Every structure is written in C-alpha cells, then in structure tokens.
Amino acid sequence: MNYFNLTTKTVMTFKEVEAARLAGSTDQVVCRHDFNSLQDAQDVVIAFEGTGVVLMATDAGEWCSPRFDIIEAPKVGDAISYAYNGDYYPCGHIATISKSMKRIVSTEGHVFNRRRLTGAWLRAGMWTMVSGHINKWNPEF
Predict the structure, then answer these.
(1) What are the beta bridge partners of residue 130?
(2) What distance in Å separates the CA atoms of residue 20 and residue 14, rounded to the nearest whole number?
(3) What contacts 6, CB < 8 A, 6 or more positions away?
(4) Which end of the chain is more exposed for a tag (fewer CB within 10 A), N or C?
(5) What is residue 136's DSSP assignment?
(6) 3-state secondary structure 32-51
(7) Which residues have CB under 8 Å from 21's CB, separation 6+?
(8) 88 and 81 Cβ atoms separated by less than 8 Å
C-alpha cells in the first residue's frame, strides 16, 4: 500500500511514514483508507502532476473495501508478465497504451483490457497483467 505525502509530493512506504511520524513530522500524509470518493483520490493524483510520478485513481467497486485507491500508472517500456492462480509467465514489455488507459499491448502481441475503473488489466478475461518479468508456477499442481 502506498502513502502520499501531500506536503513534499512524494510516494512513501509504511516504514517511511512511521519513521517520519516518530521523528515528529507534521506533513499531511494520506492513503487509500482516507478516500471517501473517486474524486478524493483524483485530487491527490492532480496534486502530484508535474512531479515525475504518474498516478491513476482507481475504483474497485461498491462491494470492495477499501474501494478507492491510487496506483502508479503503467508506462511504455515497463516489463510485464501475465498471471493466474499462482502461475506467472513473462510477456515482454509494454509496447502501446491507449489514451484512455483501457488497452495495453505487449511487445509479444498480448492485449490486456482494463477492468472497469480498477487497477487490473486482463488478457482473455482471466490472465492478469503484473509488473516485472516473472516465470513461476504454482507448486500445488
């Protein structure tokens, strides 16, 4: 889970937030548990524009908690794999991304479509795009 320091415009980890808190920092830090609407998350994304970090607000749906979150947007050239049920297979790098961020195509020709406003891109309705080159199989089978 990411934390967003609105004072310094940096993305932080939990350990960094705790260290700053123990040091007496008064910076305003928010995380996904602080967002009550997609607009709240979008406001943080807008605050980070121009910092070099490209973020996206996401909505996991009304039956998920926490519903709203912010992820780092995928970029052309990022290494990716596809995964399902503990199996991971590398599939090159991101070749193209549509302007709406709904469709991502890998250098190997795999097409991933974004599922609604979530932070998940699916291939063939079940294979999820994950970052990095991972070649691992579920040991259960």
Answers:
(1) 81
(2) 10
(3) 27, 28, 29, 30, 44, 47
(4) C
(5) B
(6) HHHCCCHHHHHHHHHHCCCC
(7) none
(8) yes
HSE-up of residue 26 (Cα within 13 Å, Cβ side): 0
Query: Which amino acid does the sequence have at 17?
Result: V
Dihedral, 37, 38, 44, 46 alpha carbons, nearest 10: -140
**Tokens coding 90:** 């590398």
What's the start-to-end Cα distance of the chain, in Å?
30
pTM value > 0.85: yes
pLDDT at 141 exceeding the cut of 70: no
Q: Contact at 8 Å (CB) between 48 and 4?
A: yes
Which amino acid type is present at position 106?
S
